[in-house]
Amino acid sequence: MAGPDEPEQPVVQGADADGVSIVAPDLLHGPQLWQLARESKVLDVNSSYAYLMWCRDFAATSAVALDGGDVVGFVTGYLRPQATDTLMIWQVAVDAGQRGRRLAARMLHDILDRSAPRWMHTTITPSNKASIRLFTAVARDRATTIERREQFDPQLLPGVDGGAHEPEDLYVIGPLSGTRHGT
Ligand SMILES: CC(C)(COP(=O)(O)OP(=O)(O)OC[C@H]1O[C@@H](n2cnc3c(N)ncnc32)[C@H](O)[C@@H]1OP(=O)(O)O)[C@@H](O)C(=O)NCCC(=O)NCCS
After folding, report:
1. Does residue 54 fall inside a structural domain?
2. How far, in Å, is the centroid of ligand 1 from the Cα of 145?
3. Within a domain: residue 2?
4. What is the CATH number of the domain that holds 50?
5. How far is the CA of 151 from the centre of ligand 1 (A)?
6. Residue 141 lies in a domain
7. Which of 36, 161, 163, 171 has the most CB within a 10 Å radius?
8. Does residue 70 lie in a domain region?
9. Is the pLDDT at 3 greater than 80, yes or no?
10. Does residue 10 register a pLDDT over 50?
């Protein structure tokens, strides 16, 4: 309770204790996903149209972290058409000023809670230690295993501006039971 001279803090409906809420994306969030992907300097940036379509058609398997009305993180994912018990996570990004607060982990858990897949897949470049740590932590939270397999060779991933792309390793997390032990 705020004292007599302190202003009451606004309570954001559905927000966690830190004021950030994790929800399925809305169509209007599309441009901010594109912006966050650009600012990450790590992700392959898709077209703004692609992020819009993701918010429209894959909201059930995607999440945004909202601080007030601002998107400060996103996860895009889909259920594989040929294996609908498998959630494929495409991209994860958290605003640089908001990292280390478990927003990425909370978004992944939110999607897992909503879509209840048996398996979660993602691909990660060998140099992206933060992402490897993130998915390892989520596997731990779900009391399951994470396994790395070779997936996409660099020649399948021609880089922009002639730059070479690292390989993308497949990480398989599961089996998932729906229960979690961490946040
Ligand atoms: C990767 C990224 C999404 C992590 O977001 P985040 O919100 O800071 O991650 P979290 O706070 O949820 O961390 C989850 C776990 O990963 C670990 N982790 C996250 N970033 C880390 C880093 N840079 N170094 C070491 N560990 C890290 C955390 O310690 C935590 O583990 P714990 O539960 O054992 O403590 C963020 O760094 C980012 O946006 N990077 C640029 C884009 C990118 O690389 N995306 C992933 C490829 S698609």
Report:
1. yes
2. 18
3. no
4. 3.40.630.30
5. 22
6. yes
7. 36
8. yes
9. no
10. no
